[in-house]
Automatic annotation (TrEMBL):
Keyword match Oxidoreductase: yes
Binding locations of NADP(+): G8, L9, A10, V11, M12, G13, N31, R32, T33, V73, K74, A75, N101
Enzyme Commission code: 1.1.1.44
Phylogenetic classification of the source organism: Bacteria, Pseudomonadati, Thermodesulfobacteriota, Desulfovibrionia, Desulfovibrionales
Name of this protein: 6-phosphogluconate dehydrogenase, decarboxylating
Family affiliation: Belongs to the 6-phosphogluconate dehydrogenase family.
C-alpha cells in the first residue's frame, strides 16, 4: 500500500511527487491524460518509489488508510469534477488536500460539502514555483484540524526549512484559511514585484543606468535585513543576456504583465472586508494598464510630458525607499489577514504565517524574522516603527523618490500608494470631515463630533 497519491501531473505536481519520493514516501500518481503519466514515469520519475494509477478508483485503492490524496489541478471546475469522482470511492476519515491556487470561497464551499461525507477536505497554499515544489516549498494548509494532524509528518518532511531549521509548513486555520493565506501571499507578491519594477524604471529611465548597472543596485540592496528572494532573482534577471540577440533578455520582453487572478482576488477581498491594501491594488492596476499597450503606444507621443527637471535621487535613496514600501506592502497583507480573522475566526495567527513564509515561498525575506518577533496584531504599525531612526531616514527617501518620479513623469503608482498609506497613519486629522459635511449637505446623512456624543446636521442652507 502506498502512503499518498497525487493527482495532476503538471510541472508543480510532478515536482511535489519527486520531492515526496526523495523523502522516502511511496507515491501513487494519476493524471487525466494517460500520456502525461507515461512520460513522467519514463522520464523524471524513473527508478523512484512512484507508481501509476490509470483511473481514480485504482488510485484510491492503492493507498493505505486513511487515504491521503493531494490534488494539483487547475483551480476551478476541475477540482469539483475530481471530488465528484473521488467521493464514491473514499471513506470517512480519508483526506483530500487541494494544493492549487483555488479561491478561498470555493474552498469554504468544498469543505462544507465534504464535511457531510466524513471525508476531510483541506485547502492548502503551495508556494515556491517549480523549484520550490521540488526542493522544498512553503506549505499553508487549512481546513479540518484532524486532516493536518494526519498530514503533518508528510508536509513537514517535504517543506522548505528556515535558517533555524523549522519546517515551513504549518496549520493556518479552519475552512478557507490555507487558500486565503496563499491569496494574500500572492497579493504581497504582486505589490513587491511592482515596487521593484518601478524602482528599476527609475534607475533605468531616471538615472540612465545600463541593465548591468541596475542589476548591481538590486544585488547591493539584497543584503542583511533587506534581503529577499525577489531582489535576488531581479538581479539575476537583469544580468541575463538575450541568447537570440545581443541585448539583455529583459529588453526583449513585451511590457505587458499578465496574471492568473490571485492579486485581483486579494484586492477584491480587501475591499469586501474594508481593509485598505493600496500597494497591492496599485500593482493589480499597473498590470491592467500595462495590458493597454496599443493605447500607450498611440498616446505616448501625444500627451504632454513633465517640464520640471529635477534630479532623480541616488540609487542608495531608491534602495531605502523600496525597502520601506516593501515592508508597508507586507503590513497591508497582514492587516488583511487580521481582518479576515476578525470576520471568520479561522484561527489565523500572524506569527505562524510569517514563520511559514521565511523560506520556500516567493515572498521570503530576511525581515520576516523580525516580523515574527515584533508583530503585534493590536498595534501592527509598531513593526514598521520599531527602528525610529531608520524609519525617519527611509520615509524621507520614499518621499524624495515619489516626488521626483512625479516630476520626471515616470509612473510609480506602488511607491506613491505606499507613501500615501504611511502619511494617512501619521495624519491625526484627515480631510474626511469635509466628506462627512458634503454627505450631510446633499443627503442629510449626519455626522459625529469629537467634542460631544450624538449625530448632528449642519446649518448648511441657512
Ligand atoms: C508561488 C506563486 C505561484 C504563481 C503565481 C503567479 O507562490 O509559487 O505565487 O502561485 O507563480 O500564481 O501568479 P500570476 O500568474 O497571477 O502572476
Amino acid at each position: 500500500m502506498n502512503d499518498i497519491a497525487l493527482i495532476g501531473l503538471a510541472v508543480m505536481g510532478q515536482n511535489l511527487v519527486l520531492n515526496m519520493a526523495r523523502n522516502g514516501l511511496a507515491v501513487t500518481v494519476y493524471n487525466r491524460t494517460r500520456e502525461r503519466t507515461e512520460a513522467f514515469l519514463g522520464g523524471p520519475a524513473k527508478g523512484q518509489s512512484i507508481t501509476p494509477a490509470w483511473d481514480v478508483p485504482s488510485c484510491v485503492a492503492a493507498l493505505s488508510r486513511p487515504r491521503k490524496i493531494i490534488l494539483m489541478v487547475k483551480a476551478g471546475t476541475a477540482v469539483d469534477q475530481l471530488l465528484d469522482e473521488l467521493l464514491p470511492v473514499l471513506e470517512p476519515g480519508d483526506i483530500v488536500v487541494d494544493g492549487g491556487n483555488s479561491h478561498f470561497e470555493d474552498t469554504v464551499r468544498r469543505t462544507r460539502r465534504l464535511r457531510e461525507t466524513g471525508v476531510f477536505f483541506a485547502g492548502m497554499g503551495v508556494s515556491g514555483g517549480e523549484e520550490g515544489a521540488l526542493l522544498g516549498p512553503s506549505l499553508m494548509p487549512g481546513g479540518p484540524l484532524p486532516a493536518w494532524e494526519q498530514m503533518r509528518h508528510i508536509l513537514e518532511k517535504i517543506a522548505a526549512r528556515s535558517a533555524d531549521g523549522d519546517p515551513c509548513a504549518d496549520y493556518m486555520g479552519a475552512d478557507g484559511a490555507g487558500h486565503f493565506v496563499k491569496m494574500v501571499h500572492n497579493g504581497i507578491e504582486y505589490a513587491v514585484m511592482q515596487l521593484i519594477a518601478e524602482t528599476w524604471d527609475l534607475l533605468r529611465r531616471g538615472l540612465n543606468l545600463s541593465p548591468g548597472q541596475t542589476a548591481d543596485c538590486f544585488a547591493a540592496w539584497n543584503k542583511g535585513a533587506a534581503s529577499s528572494y525577489l531582489l535576488e532573482i531581479t538581479a539575476n534577471i537583469l544580468r541575463t543576456k538575450d541568447l537570440s540577440g545581443d541585448g539583455f533578455m529583459v529588453d526583449a520582453i513585451l511590457d505587458t504583465a499578465q496574471g492568473k487572478g490571485t492579486g485581483l482576488w486579494t484586492s477584491q477581498s480587501a475591499l469586501n472586508l474594508g481593509v485598505p491594501v493600496p500597494a497591492i491594488t496599485a500593482a493589480v492596476e499597473a498590470r491592467m494598464l500595462s495590458m493597454r499597450r496599443e493605447e500607450r503606444q498611440r498616446y505616448a507621443p501625444l500627451l504632454p510630458a513633465a517640464d520640471v527637471s529635477l534630479d532623480i535621487p541616488a540609487p542608495e535613496t531608491l534602495g531605502k525607499a523600496l525597502f520601506l514600501a516593501t515592508r508597508l506592502a507586507y503590513l497591508q497583507g497582514f492587516s488583511l489577514l487580521m481582518a479576515a480573522e476578525r470576520t471568520w475566526n479561522w484561527g489565523l495567527d500572524p506569527a505562524r504565517i510569517a514563520r511559514v513564509w521565511r523560506a520556500g515561498c516567493i515572498i521570503r525575506a530576511a525581515f520576516l524574522d523580525d516580523l515574527v518577533r515584533t508583530f503585534a496584531p493590536e498595534a501592527p504599525l509598531s513593526f514598521i516603527a520599531s527602528a525610529p531612526e531608520d524609519l525617519a531616514d527611509a520615509q524621507l527617501a520614499l518621499r524624495r523618490v515619489t516626488t521626483l518620479a512625479a516630476a520626471a513623469g515616470i509612473p510609480a503608482p506602488g511607491l506613491g500608494a505606499s507613501l500615501a498609506y504611511y502619511d494617512a497613519f501619521r495624519s491625526a486629522r484627515l480631510p474626511a470631515s469635509l466628506v462627512q459635511a458634503q454627505r450631510d449637505y446633499f443627503g442629510a446623512h449626519g455626522f459625529e463630533r469629537p467634542d460631544r456624543p450624538g449625530v448632528f446636521h449642519g446649518p448648511w442652507k441657512g
